[in-house]
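Recap quiz, item 2
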Amino acid sequence: MTLLSLNGTVAGEWGLLGENEAPAEGANVAVSLERFLSAEEEFFESAGAVGVLVDTETSYTDLAPLVNKLSFVAIDFPAFTDGRGFSLAVRLRKDLGFKGEIRATGHAIPDQALFLLRAGFDTAEVADERKEAFENALSRFSNFYQADYQGRASVAHERHTPNEHRKAS
Amino acid sequence: MYAYDAYDHALVKSRVAEFRDQVERRVKGELTEEEFRPLRLMNGLYLQLHAYMLRVAVPYGTMSADQMRRLAHVARKYDKGYGHFTTRQNIQYNWPKLSETPDILDELAEVEMHAIQTSGNCIRNVTTDQFAGATADEVADPRPYAELLRQWSTFHPEFSFLPRKFKFAITGAATDRAAVKWHDIGLIVKKNDAGEIGFEVLVGGGMGRTPVIGKTIREFLPEADFLSYQEAILRVYNEHGRRDNKYKARIKILVEAMGVEEFQRQVEEEWQRIKHIPIDVPAEEIARINAFFTPPPLPVLDDNVPSVDDLARKNFVFASWLKNNTNPHKVPGHVNVTISLKPHGGIPGDATDAQMDLVAALADEYSQSEIRVSHEQNLILPHVAKKDLAAIWTDLDEAGLGTANVGLLTDMIACPGLDYCALANARSIPIAQAITKRFDDMKRLQDIGPLKVKMSGCINSCGHHHAGHIGILGVDRKGEESYQLLLGGSGAEDASKAAILGPGFNEHDIVDALEKVVAVYLGEREEGEEFLATYRRVGQQVFKEAVYDAA
């Protein structure tokens, strides 16, 4: 497996904590959603940055109350056809204003690289032999009919924006 | 009609390059068939019984003469010389080679056409009234809004991997020719007292194995909020639609399970949250798109044309064609002509390359180079001057396109069925052929009057049998093809679900059974009463007795 940056963000290092394992003082750790939701104040005080691993069954409303304590979210795709992962990323970014790293894990395919990027994912965990196909797919399109969460305007807006104010495309 | 700018061209060209790469990776084994399948489907490429099938989008059923000529060229060069127009106003090619499909898409891109999202679990081609922008009974042309939907839904980062396919239909007329109540989202263009454009929004309609008529969740959605509201609906569906069972994954099941009030509440809540973000396009963009749909400057002409009347007096078929195959236009002295793709004994919706070329030539000469496809699988020449009707019909008739049956019993919708389709349980085409041959008598058809027969070769109901005045559903019964008869459906503004009459028939008896249904109608009808009205008045029982007691 390789960690691929979709938008230039350097992939963070998140130590995965077992269910009863305590974080080392100041360490960046990632835990299951269950542990994250039930963690006491001292857990967050002793750890450095805290991340969470979720699957596509997770509703963003579960994360909403704790988003300000969160620095990293890994969304696991059980199947690449499960589009809920894209919505979850969009909602984290747009509805909850999450600024930390969002990573795609599990079954995503190279042809989804731009969908992931545009939904708000920063990084993806991909099979080594697919890294090149993922990278190629990232430059496949240069304009989009929708605004994305990397700050790029939609074609509909770009059409009516004077050139000098246009976002890079 | 809409013309691509540099952005649209770049997107479609990039898509063709992407698809070419996907085909190459599949051939080299870098993509598994499981992974390639949804990717090719999102580009309209199916693997059917005998070959690949490519479905090309005709966005909201509108195309130019040049585009039609290109479709004819594709049929000639890459297929067996014909194509099949579908109930989603698209065209399907039945015999392309996988390796040549990127070349087909390249050729289509040159004339601003594509196969994007004509299949797959994503937002499909938006359908609309085939007479949009040209009919006398219209509040506003719905096509600019269909184009907005096309752009918004193309490669949407959130909604390209939905629980199941998702279909929009939009109409701008009081008479619903787009079956909006039978769609995942149906939209009706309206004007408020101030003359501002808005939309009635219906959700949760659909056919398939669980037919449901859509329910209104917004009476008047302002134009400025058009796209953000659709986005809110799709968000609720994408998060909560079932993914464990593909037969229960459509939005209609979610709306039924949640209750329409709760669904509506969640959509409104979602919409309040997202409407501030730039989903809706600026007013200048709506104006830009609207400008492409400015009605052509037609002269006001006399509605009485002696030469046409003369031919109609002498020729019964032409007189029938005038009555059935033309529709009132906004501008006096003009009509919209429907070209029937339902010759008696033919394959519903099929057209040869030569026929497509002829329609393109007629469009250049008589209809502002514009052509439409209807969801009833016919072609339309809009904006035709009445004085040209005799010349047009003569050319059409010589090419086998002069059938005068639009809206009558033999103007059947039929899916490709088991002759082509990998999902079908029974053949549709031979049944349609037998029915249209049985009723091959214009005087008899004219006497029976408006009657919509719709046939599907399986429960997925691509042939809209649930919405047929008479529906026919092909099923597999212990390895034998069996055909069920359904009565009383409607796809129009008075939408209703057809009800199964009783046990199924074999391929011969179904034609007799249909004839008995027609005989009951003729016996029961009151002066001027159409089939559906008679059925609704007298009920199912009298039809049932006639069909089954005599059998």
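The helical segments of chain A are 33-38, 41-46, 60-63, 84-95, 113-119, 131-138, 155-158.
The CA atoms of residues 55 and 121 of chain A lie 14 Å apart.
End of item.
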